[in-house]
Amino acid sequence: MIAQAEDLLQQYYGYTSFRNGQKTVIDQLLENQNTLAVMPTGGGKSICYQIPGLLLDGTAIIISPLISLMKDQVDALQALGISATFINSSLSTNEQQERLTQVRLGSYKFLYVAPERFESQSFIQTINSIPLSLIAFDEAHCISQWGHDFRPSYRSIVPALKQVTNLPVLAAMTATATEEVMTDIQSLLSISSDNIVNTGFARENLSFQVVKGQDKKSFISSYIEARKLESGIIYTATRKQTDNVHAFLEKKGLQVAKYHGGLSETQRKEEQFAFIQDEKTIMVATNAFGMGIDKSNVRYVIHYALPMNIESYYQEAGRAGRDGEPSDCILLFAGQDIQLQKFLIDQSMADSPKKAQEYAKLQAMINYCHTEQCLQAFILDYFQDESISKNCGSCSNCTHQGEKTDMTREAQMVLSCVKRMGERFGASLTAKVLKGSKDKKVKEFRLDSLSTYGLMSSYTEKDITQFIHFLIAENFLSPGQERFPILSLTKNAEPVLKGKQKVWMQQIKINPHAEVDYQVS
Ligand code: ADP
């Protein structure tokens, strides 16, 4: 039958050969072996269950948590001349009934449903009355409570499957799964270890970069300036931040869309549409945006603030370059972002073991920002629980050239200035004092009488400000949690002031287009 599978690949999809892993998955499903496929985003998971669905008798049921994607998938199949439909809450009860009737008549080769459908007895009865070719679990990691996107409705399909009298072969597909999650999926769906097809999830076309000690707005405006025609996503941590960054870019005359949970559904749809259609090249959004978005030409994903864990980071960053073309995944790191994520964990309803787990995951995310190892390898090793990944050769750590500079003296100047200013002011005024500026505020607060006034006069005010941001990122300075950050020394500052600890900084070129001066060890 595998020869027929190759014919179908050519006939329906117009592709000449299978991609890594596809053939094995198809083969196993045709042999009636429950299978778990772990493949990167854009790796071609759909074909893995669509071809067996075409070859086997009966209807294939595909369970997907992404309502917004179902219609696209169904449209794509119909365009290929394959009978397919979906049933989910976006349809009226009448429409759902009509489609169920057609399912009972065996009119479809493919039926896409949301997990909740398995809670309906009439649905179970319907599928029990027809031959089934297979049941595929798209985004299968949602079934595991160890996954970052656990959906209880997905998990409750497992007991419901017992009521399916003519249970066919099961296919579980995911692009993100830790060992724990894989084991969980395996046991829940009775998949033998021999039937896991794991092509890994390295994305060779993605260049990961961590940018620290930079003014974030200056960074994004100079980065975007160099690629105005390219499509990109900027993820922020909060709705307010989305509004703020969106307004900033719009003011610069850029075509920019925004998306967050505070907008009406109509607004969200319009903004999303404008982005997908390339009417607006940039999307500024919270993590509410992206699930079920299949836009292949996203050239960059910038995280304006620290994501909560590596799982969500990789998934969001992975929305870049689905077409396989070189794309950037940039994380703008600042020390104060950690506070926000900690606060979100503190405020969550999770019980304390779960909170401890979230903290540990956040710590891994923070480590990613500080590591000097290959960034892609760091992520892949995180999922694999062992250090086996090879260097990507294109991330900001792999491409780092140049020596580290000893910045201890400059750090001492900044730290003592903050101390002398009474730990009452923000980064920009501190930079002014160090520069020796004649600014009104400097005079007003008599900061020009401090011994640290003008101590860094040979630097530009911008460089001093960036260096202060670097010291915040490195946790020598804390910006506090006020709306207008107020700098104070952290406990890490003392050894530096006493000359017991050195401060090293890398001076690197992150990217030919981006004006990035500093990277930190
Ligand atoms: P995933 O669900 O794994 O993210 P998709 O199934 O959406 O990926 O496939 C990504 C893209 O790759 C689609 O445009 C698909 O048509 C294409 N594709 C899949 N298999 C092959 C193949 N064997 N040869 C060429 N292109 C393929």
TrEMBL record:
Cite the EC number: 5.6.2.4
Q: Which UniProt keywords apply?
A: ATP-binding, DNA damage, DNA recombination, DNA repair, DNA-binding, Helicase, Hydrolase, Isomerase, Metal-binding, Nucleotide-binding, Zinc
Q: Which domain of life is it from?
A: Bacteria
The protein here is known as DNA helicase RecQ
Q: Which residues form the Helicase ATP-binding domain?
A: 26-195
Domain Helicase C-terminal residue range list: 218-366
Q: Which reaction does it catalyse?
A: Couples ATP hydrolysis with the unwinding of duplex DNA by translocating in the 3'-5' direction
Q: Which family is this sequence assigned to?
A: Belongs to the helicase family. RecQ subfamily.
Query: A GO biological process this protein is involved in?
Result: SOS response
> GO CC terms for this protein?
bacterial nucleoid; cytoplasm; replisome
Q: Which cofactor does it need?
A: Mg(2+); Zn(2+)
Single GO term (MF) = 3'-5' DNA helicase activity
Coiled-coil region(s)? none
- This protein's species is Radiobacillus deserti
In the complete protein, the residues contained here run: 1 to 521 of 699
What's its top-level EC category? isomerase
